[in-house]
Design goal:
about 30% strand, binds zinc ion, alpha+beta, 8 helices, globular, two-stranded antiparallel sheet
């Protein structure tokens, strides 16, 4: 059994990862409200976000690219997922098991066949990415121009098409939950493995690998001309043999202390065994490692090292 819960802080500079659709010649970013602390009071403020839908789509897209590159029998892709069409499958699906054996993406990210009503819930769940509670964030709009010339090479007056795009820069937080225990297992009939354990491990590990790419900024819209200037700052990933509560979301400024307190409590009270859980971190300094958490916390120097170590745990723990 393996459950993974992670929360992250990433810098995205000058990006336009999630727009709302143009209003005239203006392309605004998606706006949402968040509740946060300003000194000692809580308040609701408007901010800008990258939707969970967008993050999930990109996680799926990275998995499909890795699966194509690895070209292993354990990582097949259906006709839709090869082309990047996810979720509402256009294939006629007779059972959840059928689809699991046919496609690693439908296995991990779920699907719905509207024709037969057969579905699978996603094993991978993502939050919105929002600027952190400390509000280290700002946006601006930039004017671009498309130019059309006539046969003589002259710019025609109607050929000038100025438009404005909003771009944001800031520290963003998001969270992911991955119920890797169910990789290759139909949720509608959990006693039945559809694929063997070695293939299940390959699939679980590709989900972790794709998370690594997400953290390096491989997400969202307008990448061709505004590839995000990204840098992962902090990662906190809990891997466990048993279902566990998620860490406090990295949006909150005190999420590390909060999270450590929660797991310390679970271990002290005997609700979690010390050999059933590991807490992997990147970029988090000055963690107060008490004796209960001493051998559980694994601090890493890079995202790559962290993902590599988590993959080793999948080999050990997924059964
Ligand atoms: Zn598929």
């Amino acid at each position: 059994m393996v459950f993974v819960r992670g929360t992250f802080r990433v810098v995205f500079n000058v990006h336009s990862l999630n727009t709302e659709g143009a209003v005239g010649n203006y392309n605004p970013l998606v706006r949402v409200f968040v509740t946060g602390r300003n000194k000692d009071t809580w308040e609701v403020v408007e901010t800008y976000a990258i939707s969970g839908n967008m993050l999930k789509h990109w996680h799926a897209r990275i998995i499909s690219e890795i699966a194509k590159a690895k070209n292993l029998k354990s990582l097949p892709l259906c006709e839709d997922c090869i082309r990047g069409v996810f979720y509402r499958t256009r294939l006629r699906v007779e059972s959840e098991s059928d689809m699991i054996s046919k496609c690693v993406l439908d296995d991990l990210h779920g699907f719905l066949c509207t024709e037969t009503q057969v579905r699978r819930e996603s094993l991978i769940k993502l939050s919105f990415a929002v600027p952190v509670e400390e509000r280290i964030f700002n946006i601006c709009s930039v004017t671009h121009n498309r130019v059309v010339v006539d046969e003589s090479g002259k710019i025609s007056k109607e050929g000038m098409m100025p438009f404005k795009n909003e771009y944001a820069s800031g520290i963003y937080a998001f969270a992911i939950a991955m119920d890797l225990k169910y990789v290759g297992i139909p949720l509608a009939n959990p006693n039945k493995n559809v694929i063997n354990n070695s293939d299940r491990k390959d699939r679980a590990k590709i989900a972790l690998e794709a998370l690594g790419s997400l953290l390096q900024g491989e997400i969202g819209a307008k990448q061709a001309r505004a590839f995000p200037i990204a840098k992962p700052l902090q990662a906190l990933v809990i891997i466990s043999k048993y279902p566990i509560p998620a860490p406090t979301h990295a949006y909150y400024k005190d999420y590390i202390e909060d999270t450590m307190e929660t797991y310390r409590g679970l271990i002290t009270n005997g609700l979690l065994g010390k050999d059933t859980i590991e807490i992997h971190t990147y970029g988090i300094k000055n963690i107060d490692i008490s004796k209960e958490l001493k051998n559980i916390i694994k601090q890493h120097n890079s995202i790559g090292e962290m993902i590599g170590d988590l993959s080793k745990k999948i080999d050990e723990w997924l059964e």
